[in-house]
Design brief:
Belongs to the Tdpoz family. Helices cover 34% and strands 28% of the residues. By secondary structure, the chain is of the alpha+beta class.
Length: 336
């Protein structure tokens, strides 16, 4: 499994490379690859006296926090025609200890004979410069590497059961539409469904239950949450749904004691709060017993410039007529 990868360039002024002695290094760079720095040292006339200065040598080192990785190092030369030359590759899967407390392990790649110097000018010198591209790819590795476990797909598997007649043992009729479901799933997710479907209420023996005061789109979204623990999406994003939709879904969540769903709807309503919508949203919070949304709405409303605008709106008069206890809370805040 690839953990990270990155690359950089080392540029050599070709005329100046002749002035180097064998074993002289340059372009010592440290590059950050996430939290693992790597080091490049280039020897324009080689690192070893045995090579008589006939080669460019390159060494790349990787500092790591764990010995449980494999580092694959690549070195390419940019050709005069713009292409990249055949890569030199070195794989380092054994770590050596370092004296760094932050990076106790190191990996090294040696490209002792990266390229013959006699090949530089005809093939790799562009405007007097030789460009070497270096890359590091880091893999998880080692004998103690844990067995890879795929991500859970329980949500998608349960999601495929939403409104599926196969295996269902209860259905709901909502404004003429029929929705299929499973008593055990609904009961496990909602104490209200549990009381209705597995208790002594009449619904426990009814194969089809007719619901009132809820529309099909809202009930479909509620079932989606019950089976997947996520909000449904339309057009690829739940943010494209209207505030009215989330208000309706919040009401359903309150009705069936789905507290997580209620807070998810509250967040969506809060994201669209403005001076024009705050009174209505505050009414939703009070009506559907959501103190978290109510508190944020009151804080927003109590800003003087906001309150002066909202207090003369029709929506505020609606709050005054329908939620007198809420108006009392607002008055107490103003008097403080």
């Amino acid at each position: 499994m690839i953990i990270s990868s990155s690359f950089t360039e080392v540029k050599l002024e070709y005329p100046g490379t002749n002035s180097f002695a064998i074993g002289d290094g340059l372009n010592k760079h440290v590059f950050e690859d996430g939290e693992q720095p790597w080091l490049i040292i280039c020897y324009p006339r080689g690192h070893s006296e045995d090579d008589n200065g006939d080669y460019i040598s390159l060494y790349i080192g990787l500092m790591a926090k764990s010995s449980n990785v494999k580092a694959v190092f690549h070195a390419f030369l940019l050709c005069t025609d713009g292409r990249v030359g055949a890569p030199s590759i070195n794989c380092a899967d054994k770590a050596f200890p370092t004296k760094s407390s932050r990076y106790p392990y190191g990996y090294v790649a040696s490209f002792r004979h990266l390229v013959r110097r006699t090949d530089l000018e005809p093939s790799y010198v562009i405007n007097g410069v030789v460009t070497i591209i270096c890359a590091v790819v880091i893999f998880a590795g080692g004998a103690d590497e844990p067995i890879a476990v795929p991500q859970s797909n329980l949500g998608s598997q349960l999601g495929a059961m939403v409104d599926c007649a196969d295996g269902s043992d209860v259905s709901f009729s909502v404004s003429g539409e029929t929705f299929y479901a499973h008593r055990a799933v609904l009961a496990a997710r909602s104490p209200v469904f549990k009381a209705e479907l597995l208790g002594s209420m009449a619904e426990a023996t009814m194969p089809c239950i007719t619901l009132h005061d809820i529309d099909p789109a809202t009930f479909r979204a509620l079932l989606h949450f019950v089976y997947t623990d996520t909000l449904p999406t339309r057009g690829g994003s739940s943010s494209s749904m209207s505030t009215e939709f989330f208000a309706s879904l919040m009401a359903a969540a309150d009705r069936y004691a789905l507290d997580r769903l209620k807070l998810m709807c509250a967040q969506k309503l809060w994201e669209s709060v403005s001076v024009e919508t705050i009174a209505v949203t505050l009414g939703y919070a009070e009506m559907y017993h959501c103190p978290e949304l109510k508190s944020k709405c009151l804080d927003f409303l109590m800003t003087e410039s906001n309150f002066n605008k909202v207090a003369v709106s029709d929506d505020y008069f609606y709050l005054r007529d329908n939620f007198p206890s809420l108006i009392e809370e607002i008055k107490k805040r103003i008097e403080k």
